[in-house]
Amino acid sequence: MLPMPRDLNAAGDIFGGWVMSQVDVAGSIAAMRRTRCRVVTVAVNSFVFLQPITTQYLVSFYARVARVGTTSIVVDVDVYAETGYENLRVLKVATAQLTYVAMNEDGSKRAIPPDPAKP
Ligand SMILES: CC(C)(COP(=O)(O)OP(=O)(O)OC[C@H]1O[C@@H](n2cnc3c(N)ncnc32)[C@H](O)[C@@H]1OP(=O)(O)O)[C@@H](O)C(=O)NCCC(=O)NCCS
């Protein structure tokens, strides 16, 4: 993602809520790929901002499944920001862990099926 001026806070850095929103989206994609259904966020287990970022950065979100429960799935998300054209700098700017719950179309919880990639 390339943050826009509208994503800044009053101090001129990227608003933390913007980063949290993108982290939730990235985590939900990893959760949906594993559960193969829609998910809802039930908890943000941890969220740490490590460095401030500005509009000059390209921000990338890397999500991976940490564990799978009966209906819930825990996803770790790391956020990296890169800046500079000739002297590229890449910084880890945030790290988070979120829990999602697998949902049926009618809004009820559903059991997460076994991972087809692990026979
Ligand atoms: C998510 C939701 C369906 C859970 O319903 P529930 O009947 O309370 O579910 P349970 O208490 O049985 O928990 C379901 C699973 O979530 C886990 N869970 C529940 N609360 C949790 C919490 N605070 N932290 C981590 N995991 C949690 C449970 O351990 C369980 O996991 P498991 O099935 O793998 O053992 C319900 O709370 C809900 O709809 N919340 C709103 C979700 C939402 O709108 N999210 C978007 C907000 S921006």
Automatic annotation (TrEMBL):
GO molecular function, one term: long-chain fatty acyl-CoA hydrolase activity
Keywords: Hydrolase
SUPFAM superfamilies xref list: Thioesterase/thiol ester dehydrase-isomerase
Pfam assignment, any one: 4HBT
Highest taxon listed in the record's lineage: Bacteria
Example of a GO biological process term: acyl-CoA metabolic process
One annotated Gene Ontology cellular component of this protein: cytosol
UniProt name for this protein: Acyl-CoA thioester hydrolase yciA
